[in-house]
Specification:
Distance between the termini: 27 Å
Domain CRAL-TRIO: 122-270
Radius of gyration: 19 Å
Number of strands: 7
CATH class of the largest domain: Alpha Beta
Structural class: alpha/beta
Shape: globular
CATH topology of the largest domain: Phosphatidylinositol Transfer Protein Sec14p
Strand order of the largest sheet: 2-3-4-5-6
Number of helices: 15
Organism: Anopheles merus
Oligomer: single chain
GO cellular component, one term: membrane
Protein name: CRAL-TRIO domain-containing protein
Strand content: 5-15%
Pfam family, one: CRAL_TRIO
Length: 318
């Protein structure tokens, strides 16, 4: 059940929420050192971004709360023009591909099944403030991960995590175990679909990625993985580390966060994953409420098509 209500999307409100920094001190230091964020910079940037949205006739409805706008300001290190551009890309992405990036509903049985298979674990934050996400690829059932369902599932997790300020500031560390991967997993994914989701995950969603550690990729799967990576932000590709065996990868788990079977004692299936899904479910109304935002589709669609030639098309939502 959702614990939190959807945010308003009326951009012409008379007053805004008063932001307070409530995270542990490590995030204040990270924000300052990596994002150029402090109380003065944040207040000024939020005011400027809100004014830009109000003055933009092509953004008709938008969340104006601090936490939402800080997604984009932190993503672009508090360059207001770049944050505004990132917001436009994000809103247009959702409008151009509604079947992939709207109606992200935790009550959908397919979403529950994909999470409950245990292939994806959001493990929490390490001592450096990074949120660790661990994939055990063999647990994905190919028939369940077909497009667009597999893409929707990851989009749902990204939207959920972006509601958490520790993720906005600390970013993600991604761990991947490819052991016994079913080569049929991406059998029904065409190049256009792979390009769409990787552009979304690494460019259009305002998510900050740190390093990635992956192990035991089957040689037969290398062509499809290389194709996927070709659609990924080059800066992210540079931070990917691959290992021939799992023991090398698991060294990059902090000891207190290492799962059972990977050099540690964290119970992913019995404790961590059920608790994390409950936390995600509590945000159901917040995530679905994003669908109430609205842009001038006729204005943005031609710009999008020009900038993203070659992507598959889709009929916009009503």
């Amino acid at each position: 059940m959702s614990k939190f209500a959807a945010y308003p999307v009326d951009k012409n409100v008379k007053s805004y929420d008063e932001y307070k920094f409530t995270l542990p001190e490590v995030y204040r230091e990270l924000a300052k050192d990596e994002l150029r964020e402090d109380d003065v910079v944040r207040t000024k940037a939020l005011a400027e971004m809100r004014q830009w949205i109000v003055n933009n006739p092509h953004i008709r409805k938008c969340r104006m709360d601090s936490k939402f706008l800080l997604r984009f300001l932190r993503f672009r290190q508090f360059s207001v023009p770049m944050a505004c551009e990132a917001l436009e890309q994000y809103l247009t992405m959702r409008e151009m591909y509604p079947s992939w990036f709207k109606n992200l509903d935790t009550s959908n049985d397919k979403m529950k099944e994909l999470f409950n298979c245990g292939a994806t674990s959001i493990m929490g934050q390490d001592s450096n403030g990074r949120t660790v996400v661990f994939f055990r690829i063999a647990r994905f059932v190919p028939e369940m991960f077909e497009p667009p369902v597999g893409g929707i599932f990851i989009a749902l997790l990204i939207e959920a995590m972006l509601e958490w300020e520790e993720v906005q500031i600390g970013g993600l560390q991604v761990m991947v175990d490819y052991t016994d991967m079913d080569l049929k997993l991406f059998e029904k994914w065409g190049s256009s679909e792979l390009k769409l989701i990787m552009e979304a995950y690494t460019r259009w969603y305002p998510m900050r990625y740190n390093d990635t550690h992956a192990a035991k990729l089957p040689k037969k799967a290398l062509p499809v993985i290389e194709k996927i990576l070709s659609f990924t932000n080059p800066k992210i590709r540079e931070r990917i580390n691959c290992y021939a065996n799992v023991s090398e990868m698991e060294k990059h788990f902090e000891p207190s966060m290492a799962p059972k079977g990977y050099g540690g004692n964290v119970d992913l299936d019995g404790e961590l994953n059920p608790a994390m899904w409950k936390r995600i479910e509590q945000q159901r109304d917040v995530i679905l409420g994003l669908d109430r935002m609205e842009i001038d589709y006729d204005y943005y669609a031609p710009i999008w098509d020009q900038q993203n030639a070659g992507l598959l098309g889709e009929t916009p939502s009503a």
